[in-house]
Design goal:
about 350 residues; Beta-lactamase; five-stranded antiparallel beta sheet; single chain; alpha+beta
């Protein structure tokens, strides 16, 4: 009986050790499968407490080699051929932003992506959608009766509007896009839809039409609030590509200074875009900042008739991120000669 007890105890220890080894091996195998799935573009992790993001055709990993991340997502129509990797191209630079993306406008090809599907706060990049809807649904020369009081919006960037002011829709767009006036964004939304709440419905409807599956708007300006705005680097690139089809949007987005006169006051409006003066060929688009979003940027650079759109989210140095990524994009890729006739719906080369 004593011998049996001595035999059973070692057997139990061996069995227990075996179970631990099996469990450890299974855990290791599961991690390997997840790593492989990440390379295969499975849904990326959520960076903010929002519903799980939907994975697009864009690779979820950082593109550290100078190769296209993925072929065009089906919902994007190519207006021309995509660039190819240049001989001797080097790896993309490291950046401070938590998410970023480079898109060739003509083809829709993704040239670089870092966490492109993460749902993050875009801050004032929200105003790109507000401007798109104003251009699509409004007449820029029509007068807007302002009902917004900027004096109640302390701590945020404003154009300086007061109730009773009258400005054209175009003037309000400059006041929203250049100094990032949150009051101008509200005034535009209320003019287009009657109320800011109805305008938000329109914003999200348009986002759905564009296939922006990782985007939700809660207001026309992008300030953090109940429910919160969120978007992704990929969705913001798609939105900007659509907005840049409109000549009126391109003109406003590429303006650095403008003076507008209302019925009450005159407004001197200067751009906040840090790319101007730092990189050749810059022609837009918008910056943003809140404590939650940190520094955000959508930029556009056109060289030799080829436009590249950059998106940077949650950065501590959006200007350096944008400049380094854009310079790398043009150095690491080669474009076919521009076509003489633009595809239907596409802006003319270099416009």
């Amino acid at each position: 009986m004593r011998l049996r007890r001595f035999v059973v105890r070692p057997l139990l220890a061996v069995a227990l050790l075996g179970m631990l080894l099996v469990t450890a091996n299974c855990g290791t195998q599961r991690l390997s499968i997840e790593d492989a799935a990440l390379v295969a573009s499975t849904p990326v992790a959520v960076s903010t407490p929002a519903p799980a993001p939907v994975t697009s055709a864009v690779d979820a990993s950082v593109n550290i080699l100078p190769t296209p991340v993925a072929v065009n997502p089906p919902r994007l129509v190519a207006w021309g051929p995509a660039p190819t990797v240049a001989a001797g191209a080097v790896a993309a630079p490291a950046i401070a932003g938590e998410a970023a993306l480079l898109m060739d406008e003509t083809s829709g090809r993704i040239l670089y992506a870092k966490s492109p599907n993460d749902r993050l706060s875009p801050a004032s990049l929200t105003k790109i959608m507000t401007a798109l809807l104003a251009v699509e649904r409004g007449h820029l020369d029509e007068l807007v009766d302002v009902r917004v009081d900027s004096r109640t919006m302390r701590g945020s960037t404003v154009m300086g509007l007061v109730p009773g002011e009258q400005l054209t829709l175009e003037d309000l767009l400059y006041g929203m896009m250049l100094p990032s006036g949150n009051d101008a964004a509200l005034a535009i939304g209320m003019h287009v839809s009657g109320t800011a709440e109805e305008f938000v419905v329109l914003m999200n409807k348009r986002a759905g039409e564009l296939g922006l599956v990782n985007t939700r708007f809660a207001n026309p300006h992008g300030l953090d609030g109940a429910g919160g705005n969120y978007s992704s680097a990929y969705d913001l690139a798609v939105l900007t590509r659509e907005a840049m089809r409109h000549e009126q949007f391109r003109t406003i987005a590429n303006t650095t200074y403008r003076v507008v006169k209302g019925s009450i006051a005159t407004y001197s409006l200067g751009t906040l875009n840090p790319l101007y003066g730092r990189i050749a060929g810059v022609d837009g688009v918008k910056t943003g900042y809140t404590r939650n979003a940190r520094q955000t940027l959508v930029g556009s650079v056109t060289r030799d008739g080829h436009r590249v759109i950059v998106v940077v989210l949650r950065s501590s140095d959006r200007a350096s991120d944008g400049v380094s990524l854009l310079n790398w994009a043009f150095a690491a890729h080669e474009w076919p000669a521009p076509t003489t006739v633009a595809a239907e719906g596409a802006p003319a080369p270099g416009s």
